[in-house]
Write a structure and sequence with these properties.
Elements: H1 2-27, H2 48-58, E1 62-66, H3 72-83, H4 85-94, E2 96-100, E3 118-122, H5 148-165
Parallel strand pairs: 1-2
Antiparallel strand pairs: 1-3
Helix pairs in contact: 4-5
Protein name: AGR3 protein
Signal peptide: 1-23
Family: Belongs to the AGR family.
Length: 166
């Protein structure tokens, strides 16, 4: 019996130490590549399809950011987006988040053209919210760094619309 409990204890210690090692490893994780600089604390989905699935499942709106690496407007917006605590917190807690460097096959995501940066919202019923627009009439879903307060309002609007339409 003594041998049995010693064995069980050693196995337990091995399990605990390997879990500890994994926890330490997790703590030191490299910045998430899916964030591409838009916010490493945010959980990002990899594809539009995954985003739609998660939005429906979690009843949270999906926020889709179209951008390109070599676009100076995207870089400027990304910087202010990543530095804004209110946006980062809302993005992490209330939205399914996706940033894409390529177009999707869903034409609803480019109602007025395939420009970047472009931010659109899709609600959990999988409706693209063409009614949540930015400040520019020629590029309805474009945002510039100075439009961050406007983007915050639109994020809140996307959340409100879900509440009222359920």
């Amino acid at each position: 019996i003594m041998l049995h409990s010693t064995l069980a204890l050693s196995l337990l210690l091995i399990a605990v130490s390997s879990n500890l090692a994994m926890a330490i490893k997790k703590e030191k994780r490299a910045p998430q590549t899916l964030s591409r600089g838009w916010g490493d604390e945010i959980t990002w989905v990899q594809t539009y399809e995954e985003g739609l699935y998660q939005a429906k499942k979690s009843n949270k709106p999906l926020m889709v950011i179209h951008h390109l690496e070599d676009c100076q407007y995207c870089q400027a917006l990304k910087k202010t987006f990543a530095e804004n605590e209110e946006i980062q917190e809302m993005a992490q807690n209330n939205f399914i988040m996706l940033n894409l460097m390529h177009e999707t096959t869903d034409k609803n995501l480019s109602p007025d053209g395939q420009y970047v940066p472009r931010i659109m919202f899709v609600d959990p019923s999988l409706t693209v919210r063409a009614d949540i627009t930015g400040r520019y009439s020629n590029r309805l879903y474009a945002y510039e760094p100075q439009d961050i307060p406007f983007l915050i309002e639109n994020m809140k609007k996307a959340l409100r619309l879900i509440q009222t339409e359920l």
